[in-house]
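[Q] Does anyone have a clean structure-token version of this?
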Amino acid sequence: MSLRIFLPLLSAFGLSILPSFADEPNRTGESERPNVVVFVADDMGWGDSGTYGHELIKTPNLDKLAARGVKLTQCYSACAVCSPSRSAILTGRHPYRNGVWRHLSGNHKAHLRESEITYPKLLKSIGYETCHVGKWHLNSLPHFNTAEYPQPGDHGYDHWMATHNNAHPSHKNPDNFVRNGEPIGEQKGYSAQIVAAEATEWLSEKRNKSKPFALSVWVHEPHSPIATDPKFSALYGEHDNRTYMGNITQLDDAVGQVMQTLDAEGVSDNTLFFFTSDNGPVARYGGTTGGLRGGKRSDHEGGIRVPGIVCWPGHISPGTTSSVPVVGTDIFTTVLAIAEVPLPKDRTIDGVNIVPALSGKPVDRPIPLFWRTHVSPPQDRVAMRIGDWKIVGNDTLTKFQLFEIEKDWKEENDLAEAMPEKTEAMKQQLLALWKQIEAEGPNEWWEGERNKPARGGTLNY
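[A] Here you go.
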């Protein structure tokens, strides 16, 4: 179904598509293009750090990063599970547009297509050095590190060391890393520190230091199967949750390693450092949403609202907070804006330039924040937010909840019955947007699958 069919429908509900990808990015005025570091935790909840108010979890490096920059209190992932949210970071496009609509475990035909344009590929085309270390999870396991499907190098990375999905057999001594296409066998130590060490070596020894760089650091912590270095779990004594809390401190230590290397290389002052998580936490492993409703897989706030900390010296006031809603898809657009790279004009880009939000200023968002998670509980499988209002729909798009998020951030008061006109207007906007998104993506990949019941068992994705 063509995009042209749905543009009038979207316009009728106040939604504009074309300006989001036809406009030129804002100019930075810098003669030297900034470096970019995007650090992504795995299953880390909004409440899983001292930085975001946890009374016990120690995250001194995230505290330091926030002290140097801005803490985002309404930062969202693009999906409530892993693969889709990561695809959105790289492409700036909703997962159902870019094709990574589901978690890519087992054997599945969905993958991040080579036709998708990633920000590392665009930055590389203008002279950036690029590197990815850590988790990948943008193709299924049988297709990882094969010629059949695109790999990190095909999406713009000069150097990469990655696992398909989780560290195996756990965070301790993982044996499934691949470096530039070559399996490297068991690595002694813990995953976050192994990933940070690779990033450190690349920054200090391997990259061309005459070029700007873009570095992706996607650690496995605190995703299961969890293994924590005793020196971090010991910080929490005999607490029942010491392994999980220590695992957060373990990933925080990796953040510190990267920050220290940037300082040692003298590049911190010209580097945008963005820390976030791919989705919300798993409570039974010890994760916490900080009071938000739901968790991983849910399109309520606990599944999609995640930590977000951005440091960019000289451009962001240190030690500040911003409550402006931002989402993972915005990373693509923002990175291209600060690097002075025009956005692609041949496809819909959902993300927007959030540089104003980093100073607490509102952003123009022509396409609303939208989530559809294929394994969410049936009653909250789709959601959309416009301004302070959020609508949550069920798997068949027939029953909806309405929340005023600024006042009700825990989503305790469903206003759908009390405000039927508002609910209906939001519903129609959501349905129109969903039809447009579905029409643009490779819908043959999900036909017949998207409304399957959420599966139980272990969360290995």
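[Q] Thanks! Anything notable?
[A] The domain at 20-359 is CATH 3.40.720.10 (Alkaline Phosphatase, subunit A).
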